[in-house]
Amino acid sequence: MLEERAASFGKRSIKSSAKLAGLKMVVAMCDLTTLEGKDTPGKVAYLCRKALQPMAAKYDVPSCAAVCVYPNLVKYARKFLGHNSPVQIASVATGFPSGQYPLPTKLNEVRRAVADGANEIDMVIDRGAFLAGDHARVFDEIASVKAACGPAHLKVILETGELVTYDNVRLASEIAMQAGADFIKTSTGKVAPAATMPVTLVMLEAIRDYFFATGLRIGMKPAGGIRTSKQALAYLVMVKETLGDDWLNPQLFRFGASTLVNDVLMQIARQADGNYQGPDYFSLP
Fold first, then answer.
1. What's the pLDDT band for 12 if we cut at 50, 70, 90?
2. Given strand 219-221, what is the order of strands in its sheet?
3. Mean pLDDT over all residues of the chain?
4. Pick the catalytic residue: 50, 155, 185, 263?
5. The CATH number of the domain where 219 resides is what?
6. Is residue 280 over pLDDT 60?
7. In a domain, 258, yes or no
8. To pair with 56 at 20 to 30 A between CA atoms, which of 41, 124, 178, 217?
């Protein structure tokens, strides 16, 4: 039933004017990400520039929500963006992507990233502890990381591709929210499958039920595997029909999908100009 309902969101008909507004909303919700061993300060600066102005000003496209980089590169993103930028700086932490680091090391990594200028921390849970049934340890680690974040927002990555069942995804979502997550996030992007619509629906329903129980709005970030405008719009439909319009903003919903951005920009140019621009007209994410 879950998979059938998730599939239905991709079949909605969207009018042209609403589609253009939806595409611009997708851009505003994107976290442009570079998490490679060959990352350099120059690449981070380039990513920040693209996040600030994804395409020509005539298209009236908003900035992306954030750039996401490794902790040692946060200071370069902050240097480029300054302190009043509309683009947030997110950093992966806690032994990304495995999560198999001692807790003191994880907390030091978080504190350093925040001190260097990160507004958001994307932490990974210890999936080994979760799958072994040590849910208290998972909760305690998230709570400790949340405390170490200080003013920075915390996104908790569940790595749903390793959690095996939808029931586990639901339980991990609940643990993360109860422990202090500002966002829950599907994946690191390093494990297949990454974000899928059924898994995201499970997490959205957990957010909805947590809101009804507590009055707290928790954000959602599907990450990895979302590559086309059509897919992204289907996710927005799913958010609207599950959580309502209050979640349709970058403060409560993000896409972790750098390869998505250029496809969305191509679609925006087509809507505005009546013809496609080739991919060579857009800088690589």
1. confident
2. 31-33, 66-69, 88-93, 120-124, 153-157, 183-185, 219-221
3. 94
4. 185
5. 3.20.20.70
6. no
7. yes
8. 41
Q: Which two tokens stand for residue 56?
A: 């020509």
User: Which tokens sit at 245?
Assistant: 């319009």
- Active-site residue, selected from the candidate residues 116, 122, 126, 263: 122
* Helix 16-29 and helix 229-243, axial crossing angle in degrees, nearest 10: 90
Q: Quick check: is 122 catalytic?
A: yes
- Under the banding of pLDDT at 50, 70 and 90, the label for residue 15 is confident
Of the listed 24, 50, 106, 221, which one is catalytic?
221
pLDDT, tens digit (0-9, with 9 covering 90-100), for 68-90:
999 999 999 999 999 999 999 99
Q: What is the mean pLDDT of residues 131-139?
A: 98
Domain count, the chain: 1
Q: Around Cβ 157, how many Cβ atoms within 10 Å?
A: 28
User: Can you give the pLDDT at residue 284?
Assistant: 60
Q: What residues pair up with 67 in beta bridges, in sequence order?
A: 32, 89
Separation CA 208–CA 265 (nearest Å): 31
User: What is the share, in percent, of the chain residues with pLDDT greater than 70?
Assistant: 96
Judge whether 50 counts as a catalytic residue. no
Task: Say which residue the tokens 């600030």 belong to.
Answer: 52
Q: How far is CA 18 from CA 15, 25, 27, 64, in A?
A: 5, 10, 14, 19
What's the whole-model pTM score?
Answer: 0.93
Asked, for residue 142, whether it belongs to a domain, the answer is yes
Domain that holds residue 198: 2-272
